Amino acid sequence: MVPTEKEWRKALAERHGGALQRKFSSAAVAVCGLGGLGSNIAVSIARAGVGRLTLIDFDRVDLTNLHRQQYKADQIGRYKAEALRENLKEAAPYAELEIHTERITEANAAELLTCTDVICEAFDDAESKAMLTNTVLETTAKTVLRAKEAFEQGADYLGVGAVYPTTTKVKTVLTSIDTLRELCSAVPIPVNAIGGLNRDNLDVLVGIPIAGICAVSRHHEGGRPGTGGSQAENKGRRTWSVQKR
User: 0.85 cut: is pTM over it?
Assistant: First the structure.
């Protein structure tokens, strides 16, 4: 027998505490990519009691997915987003579920992710990962006025786009170091930039209190994720030490 919504909410509140569960219930989360990582993230989020979940994937369920993804044999051939919505309704019957069976791109990302509090990137390939990260961070402020407007409207962090050219943003308009410094001083919230970092330009960031640099486009550079990941990790540690000087 399926519990009533009141019984469901009460059980979650007892498990997590009322204050925390209210945050979960009012949150909107998007999962982009519903494979081995994304489908399992979605199940955990739904079971935790998150109120609104957006599922995005253009792919269909395949036999080779069944050993590690949250699908069933009789769902082979169906869109993953549709099949996962069906399965989540069994696990979390009162979650609000929205699905999109299209590929997420720079052109449609803003529309698909409207009113989303948290975005979970769970793509397979480096290009898609970089595209989504760049797109999210570049829904940003590149002027002090826009930064202040975003803060006043409730933003809890700020993206400023690319500071240096990246392999995925060759033609983008870069945010200058002077502008980055002004933005960091203008608002009392974390400021993040997209990377393109190397040994020659990293030291330019000394004295600028940025919260972080996204290095995803360099993570898989040259088709060697292990090496790229190590380089990005090392640069991340060095960036942290730069901030702390």
Answer: no
